[in-house]
Each structure stands twice: as structure tokens, then as C-alpha cells.
């Protein structure tokens, strides 16, 4: 049987021990907020700075500072498309494409004009999101004192939102309609000029640089009329 007198007499000791333990935990937590959080944020900042650097545009006269990556085009349709694309930062700086026209043995050869490069919007958007994440981290430098864990979580949620958006831009292919492609500057970048019934589009899908080729065909007038009749029925 418990002794009420003894239990009551031990309460002050237990309370004092709890207060000491709480004080130690608070001291450790404050140390984490002051020292460890900033150390981890600095590591993350360094990683994102390197990512941002890789996204950068080539600067005239300093192109050699950005790594060039060559992508050899492969086709799943009987080697109808062959060529090499050169990516530097967020821009396609060179393109050499051989295109075998459907239902013909003719092979068309196109290259980027020397004075042209094509910026990939997906990479630009991803870079912008990475830079926004860097800006959030930079707003809480080592001189800033975090007061609560919730404040750290709020910052990291905002940073992760930007990084998730950056990732999604690189994992979701950019879509352009054929009219948009026809009026885009991309069709004016090649020499010799592409024929009017051929259009191309470049985009990022995960870790791959993709080229899509469209060959347009004019439908006979009777086909259009038949489609309209079927639609009206």
C-alpha cells in the first residue's frame, strides 16, 4: 500500500528534477536553433548555389566557363530522326538534325544558325524557382536568431515549395500547340529554313532532352466535309 505522506513529500524533489531537465532541454534546443540550424541551412545554400550556377546562361566571351552537354538523338521510328543537340546552361546552342521524310527516301538536314540559340523555358523556370529558394535562405543569414522550431519549419516549407516547383517544371514536358510552334522564333532558327509542313519542338522530360518532329498533311476537301457530316449526325 502506498504511503500518502511519502508520496507528497517527494513531490518537491520530482518537481525540481523536472525543472532541471526542462531547463537542460531548453538549453539544448536553443543551441540547435542558434548553431545547428544555420549550419544545415548553409549546406543547403551551397548546394542550391551550385544548382543555380549550372542553370546559368552563357555570357558572351565566357561561354567556356559553362559545361557543354551533347545529346545524341535517337528515334523509335526506324531512325527517321538523327542528330546531335548541344545544351549549355539553359540554352540550346547548337543543333544538327537529319530528318527522313515520311513515305519518302529524302533526308533533310538542318542546323541552328550560328547567331542563334534557343532558351528552354522549362530550365529558365526551374532556375527561377531555385533562385527564389536561395533568396528565402539568404533572408535568414547567420546573424538571424530563430526563436521557435515553428519558425524554422515555416522557412523550410517555403523553400521546399520552390524546389518542388522547380522539379515539376523539369518532369512535366512543356506543351505548345501547333499554331504556337508555327509562330514561335524556333522555326526561324534553322539553316536551311525548314519547309512549311515540318515543325519541331524541344523540351525536357525528367533527365532527357527531347525533340518532337511534326510533319503536317493537308486533308482533301472531301475529308473535311465528311468529318463535318459525321459530326452533325
TrEMBL record:
Q: Which InterPro entries match?
A: RAVE2/Rogdi
What is the top-level taxon of the source organism?
Answer: Eukaryota
Q: List, alphabetically, the GO terms of the cellular component aspect.
A: RAVE complex; synaptic vesicle
Q: Where in the cell is it found?
A: Cytoplasmic vesicle, Secretory vesicle, Synaptic vesicle
Instruction: Give the family per the record.
Output: Belongs to the rogdi family.
Q: What is this protein called?
A: Protein rogdi homolog
Q: What is the lineage of its organism?
A: Eukaryota, Metazoa, Chordata, Craniata, Vertebrata
Amino acid at each position: 500500500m502506498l504511503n500518502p505522506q511519502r508520496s507528497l513529500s517527494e513531490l518537491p524533489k520530482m518537481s525540481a528534477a523536472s525543472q532541471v531537465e526542462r531547463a537542460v532541454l531548453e538549453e539544448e534546443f536553443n543551441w540547435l536553433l542558434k548553431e545547428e540550424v544555420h549550419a544545415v541551412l548553409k549546406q543547403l545554400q551551397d548546394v542550391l548555389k551550385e544548382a543555380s550556377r549550372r542553370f546559368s546562361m552563357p555570357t558572351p566571351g565566357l561561354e567556356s566557363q559553362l559545361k557543354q552537354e551533347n545529346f545524341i538523338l535517337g528515334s523509335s521510328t526506324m531512325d527517321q530522326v538523327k542528330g546531335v543537340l548541344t545544351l549549355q546552361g539553359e540554352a540550346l546552342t547548337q543543333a544538327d538534325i537529319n530528318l527522313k521524310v515520311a513515305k519518302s527516301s529524302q533526308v533533310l538536314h538542318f542546323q541552328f544558325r550560328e547567331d542563334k540559340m534557343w532558351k528552354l523555358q522549362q530550365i529558365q523556370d526551374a532556375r527561377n524557382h531555385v533562385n527564389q529558394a536561395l533568396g528565402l535562405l539568404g533572408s535568414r543569414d547567420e546573424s538571424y536568431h530563430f526563436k521557435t522550431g515553428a519558425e524554422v519549419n515555416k522557412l523550410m516549407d517555403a523553400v521546399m515549395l520552390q524546389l518542388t516547383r522547380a522539379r515539376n517544371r523539369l518532369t512535366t514536358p512543356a506543351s505548345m500547340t501547333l499554331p504556337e510552334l508555327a509562330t514561335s522564333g524556333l522555326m526561324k532558327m534553322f539553316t536551311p529554313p525548314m519547309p512549311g509542313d515540318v515543325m519541331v519542338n524541344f523540351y525536357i522530360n525528367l533527365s532527357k532532352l527531347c525533340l518532337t518532329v511534326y510533319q503536317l498533311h493537308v486533308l482533301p476537301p472531301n475529308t473535311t466535309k465528311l468529318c463535318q457530316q459525321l459530326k452533325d449526325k
